[in-house]
User: Fold this.
Amino acid sequence: MTLRDVARAAGVSVATASRVFNGKGSVSDRTRERVLQAAEDLHYTVNTLAKSMMGIGPRLLVYITFARAGTQSDVIDGMEQVATRHGAMFTANTVGPDIHQERALVRMYMQQRATGMIFGKSGDGSAEYVERIRRYDEALRSIGSYLVLCRPEIPQLPQVATVSYEQTMAVSRATRNLVMLGHRRIAFIGDWDQDSAHRRVDGYRRGLESEGIPVDPSLIIRCPNITADGCRAAEQLLGRFVERPDERPTAVMTFSDDIAIGVYRAARRLGLRIPDDLSVVGFDDIPFAADITPSLTTIRPSFRAVGQRAAELVFKRPEPGNPDLHTTFESRFILRDSIAPPAGRR
Assistant:
């Protein structure tokens, strides 16, 4: 069925039927009802994708990220709220480490003339990553689209809009909090394959150094951002000190809540109590962080605000030099039951 069929069934001109579906121009309520009823009877559907590609229909906002679960749901909710407010379509896509899949998505949505793309993958900060983002930005601008990254500003690409949340300073504050409780042997367990991982371990180092505590490289353990791997890494670390309990770390900073939960499992297997024998701090404040026992002390980024701001940037399109081009939201330290002074300081 075509628009001409609907117009004929409703007894109106094609131009009048078009005004009804476009929401433009003056059409009486009686005529609008007649056109819509005819469309329903004929099962006519407006091809919004074709209209969008022609630049006259609803705009399309695209989000490309690594996952939709956990904290990503808040980011996506924030973006969807803004897209709805602007009358735009919104789609969220997940891609793994396969760069070919990522490029294929970008090409597909460029063909559909997406009004903007938001990347939730922070990347590794390598020269190859920076060059890939530069090419995406140039390609999107060439078709009138706009790129936003959910990560800190890339110094080599100041023209690319970014939205992020505190990481380095947030972890530094949390580490200093452990020091103020009396901890001196503080470990870090986390991922190394993302730019955000480097920022968080840097915060851990800064927190120790600011309190005059030298960084012990043997207490920094690398592992993927997976609970099972966090458990194995913690067992490997804490297991070194079975016969030397006085030298065992009394606290652990982790890259994420997922790894922190792995530390909980390892502590149970080794007969250690949290926080009596080991204090643990996470990052993300995932939905059930407050419900595990003991409740997890963590760092809570402003995920929803990041999503909202990233989407707003697509529609506002600030140009280079505009102070709105780069935004960093504060992250909060959430004190719960998983940390306490070490045994010797109570």
Summary: The first strand starts at residue 60 and ends at 65. Residues 102 and 132 are 11 Å apart (CA to CA). The chain has a mean pLDDT of 91.
